[in-house]
Amino acid sequence: MAHGRKYAINGNATCTQSATLPLLTVISTANVRPKIFDLLLGSAASPVDQQGRFQLQRCTTTGTPGSSITPQALDGDPAALATSGLAVFSAGPTLTANAFLLTLVGAMRSSLRWVAKDGAEIVLPATASNGVALMATSISAAWSLDMCVHYSE
Hints:
Helix content: under 10%
Number of strands: 12
Shape: globular
Largest sheet: 6 strands, antiparallel
Radius of gyration: 14 Å
Structural class: mainly beta
Mean pLDDT: 94
Distance between the termini: 13 Å
Order of helices and strands: EEEEEEEEEEEE
Number of helices: 0
Oligomer: single chain
């Protein structure tokens, strides 16, 4: 799988259900079309029986994240052009209605991982402030969530 420059975004947040405030965002620029090829969700907290549905939803603004995450180069490449935000968002991005690109359902006791088949990465538009938001659309109770997104530019 040829990817060009590869980056990782890692973060941790308290996972709570929301239809408007994401846990994490990946935002492109007018100069690059990021391609998400790996997504890992899990928890290092003491396991309990909590379930959740996580969805990647298209967005057309960045929102106001609680913090920004600096993407880390996986191969020593220059700084990434895409940006990322981490919960807790004080204002969510503008979400594209019903534009869910991936749905993962799982429990706190086990990690969830999605890896794209060759050529089937989730491609973000080369449009400033557009991207995807990782949403917790159904959660049985709040829990600590560790997230890792690998993407290429």
